[in-house]
Design goal:
Elements lengths: L1 E10 L5 E10 L1 H7 L7 E6 L3 E6 L3 E6 L2
Antiparallel strand pairs: 1-2, 1-5, 2-3, 3-4
């Protein structure tokens, strides 16, 4: 698992939304799959001390590893 900061688009049904930045733990396998020819549609993230979240890859704007 690697700690990363993700900035992604979160919207509502009306088309409005905003970019949100979160800090999350990502599986190294998911990070490697993002670089492949066929990236996954979603990646799994662990946020807020153990909550699981599925993030649509097409909504990710920026991902930075936190050391």
């Amino acid at each position: 698992m690697k700690r990363c900061k993700l900035t992604y688009w979160t919207g509502d049904k009306g088309g409005d939304g905003e970019f949100v930045t979160i800090e999350a733990l990502l599986n190294i396998k998911d990070i490697n799959r993002l670089m492949s020819d066929t990236p996954p549609k979603f990646i799994e993230a662990i946020i807020n001390d153990g909550e699981w979240m599925a993030i649509p890859v097409e909504n990710i704007n920026k991902m930075v590893q936190v050391y």
